[in-house]
Amino acid sequence: MTGIYIHVPFCKRKCPYCDFYSVCRPELYEDYTQAVCRNIEAFKGRDIKCDTIYFGGGTPSVLSAEQVDRIIDTAGKCFDLCQPEITLEANPSSVDREKMSGWRKAGVTRLSFGVQSANDRELGFLGRLHDFSQAKSAVETAAQVGFRHISCDIMLGVKGQTLESLWDSIESITALPVDHISAYMLKIEKGTAFDCDEMRNAVADDDMLCDMYLQTVGQLASKGFLQYEISNFAKEGGKSRHNLKYWHGEEYIGIGPSAHSFFDNERYYCKSDVEEFISDKVQSMVVLEDDPDKAEEYVMLGLRLTEGIDIGKAEELGGKELGENIRKKAALFQKQGLCVVEKGILRLTPAGFLASNSIIGELLW
Ligand code: SF4
């Protein structure tokens, strides 16, 4: 079944570390909403079955309950929606009870909050508009208005963060009514306000990041949040069905500036230009790859997941030579504690996830 990704390219203010496409243009919210609906309508009559919708950003929570409702309603008329998981990314600084209750009534089933830390000094460094008490109250209110699936993002490697302060953040955040955690390492991205030597020297170095990551995996497991992907952890029933589609190589349709799609065996994206998105009748798409290498994709995406890959399937897709190379290299990585091979299934360990790029490179060539 297909997933729908809707990129909401607006933020109240740009965070200094972020390279996602977003602009501060509240006067465009309504035109943007109409453009999203037009693009959804372009799929009408194609009999597309869909079981997830994901509002990502940017900051989808700047949209009103009525605007979100209109988009979901349009999707319901144009796609065959089958008990959909509908996720909306939210910032603690742009939510209130009425809005969250409206999203719930509109059909949103899951909220994902960009909390990042429970330490106000760290939140200040990240340029976030909220403090932890606001984040806590936003998550508690979401649960009170009926959300049973709530996720929080946590950032690792922030300037001044220690193993202890990270531990305390995770203790505070997992004490909230949440069933999912995404833990990301802070990276200095090109072209962001943090892209300078002063900042590179101020944030955690690679060794510290590795320690933070391994501590986080263990601490979250002790709280019942089991790792299912490099950066994602869930309680029973809390995994993101939409994000799993990316890693399982399933189809998704992306709508909105900078949104990527994998549909009809093609990978393509919409340009990062909200004005063009609004003025075009239907978004124009740029094709990335019209015939992606299936074996490569299977290995690269599958090894992000703790469920791992079936070596036999990789061999079926990529040939005998690839299968033999994977078996040979995996045996070496297993000795180093970086992966486990059991009954033909290859899984990376948490230490393996930290070196996943080079491991995948070795397995594939
Ligand atoms: S981190 Fe989130 S809120 Fe901050 S600029 Fe990026 S998309 Fe917007």
Automatic annotation (TrEMBL):
CDD domains: Radical_SAM. It is found in: Cytoplasm. Residues 1-226 form the Radical SAM core domain. One of its GO terms (molecular function) is oxidoreductase activity. Pfam families: HemN_C (PF06969), Radical_SAM (PF04055). Keywords: 4Fe-4S, Chaperone, Cytoplasm, Heme, Iron, Iron-sulfur, Metal-binding, Oxidoreductase, S-adenosyl-L-methionine. Belongs to the anaerobic coproporphyrinogen-III oxidase family. HemW subfamily. NCBIfam families: hemN_rel. Probably acts as a heme chaperone, transferring heme to an unknown acceptor. Binds one molecule of heme per monomer, possibly covalently. Binds 1 [4Fe-4S] cluster. The cluster is coordinated with 3 cysteines and an exchangeable S-adenosyl-L-methionine. This is Heme chaperone HemW. It comes from Ruminococcus bicirculans.
